[in-house]
Amino acid sequence: MNTLPPISSQAPLKFLSPEATETAFNHWLLELLPGVRQAIADQGFAKGQQLTAFRVYLAGFDPAGEM
């Protein structure tokens, strides 16, 4: 069962997930395909944290390493 709320391009991202951190961003990058990972990493954390896909990932991210 999907426990995440439906995602809308109009939804304010701050309500969908916890605060973005570089640690969470780096964990997310590790789960991506190498080419995609590099392209996003090259843009940096400041731009990457705004991506909807990263915000969805944050909704399930556990800083202790357990998702």
Automatic annotation (TrEMBL):
What protein name applies here? Uncharacterized protein
Q: What organism, scientifically named, is this protein from? A: Hymenobacter metallilatus
